[in-house]
Design brief:
mainly alpha, about 0% strand, elongated, about 170 residues
Length: about 170
């Protein structure tokens, strides 16, 4: 069995790791630190791998990183994801257009398909219907569907009043 040759004092690393587990709120980081603490306490990586859901190689890698570079190397990096195709200024312009009457932009109503067409026309950016719906929601708008009222051509005051009371 190969054992790790420590660059730093094993006991110092273990005490720092215990302190981190009690103070940190980042669950992923605490999980990693706890496993490294167990290895520093003498548990073999091969045994830990059977119970913790991490591979032996991963555990050995974490131990080596902590020993050589410190505990901060176990902190997860923020995953940024794909950048938006619309700038913040364009989103603000779209929000202003949606708040105004849709007929000013040549539409009857603002929904996913019309916003998608608006973005394509104004900015030349292909934006899907579902992405447009999500954008509307992110800007603080929600889908409001019109209620079907009793016909105005055939006045039936009783039906109209009953409908108003149920809504």
């Amino acid at each position: 069995m190969r054992s790790h040759k420590y660059v730093n004092n094993r006991e110092d690393l273990l005490s720092q790791g215990r302190r981190i587990v009690f103070e940190s709120a980042d669950n992923k980081f605490v999980h990693r630190v706890s496993l490294v603490n167990l290895m520093l306490s003498g548990f073999p990586a091969k045994e830990l791998a059977l119970y913790c859901g991490e591979s032996k190689r991963t555990l050995q890698s974490w131990l080596k990183k902590v020993d050589e570079q410190g505990w901060e190397t176990l902190i997860s990096k923020k995953q940024t994801g794909r950048p938006s195709r619309l700038s913040n200024q364009q989103i603000e312009e779209i929000k202003a257009a949606v708040q105004a009457d849709p007929e000013q932009s040549g539409y009857n109503v603002w929904d996913g398909p019309t916003l998608s067409a608006f973005i394509k026309c104004k900015y030349g950016i292909e934006y899907g219907v579902r992405a447009s719906q999500i954008l509307l929601h992110r800007m603080g708008f929600s889908l409001i569907r019109p209620q079907v009222y009793p016909s105005l051509e055939q006045p039936d005051d009783e039906t109209r009043e009953a409908f108003k009371k149920t809504d």
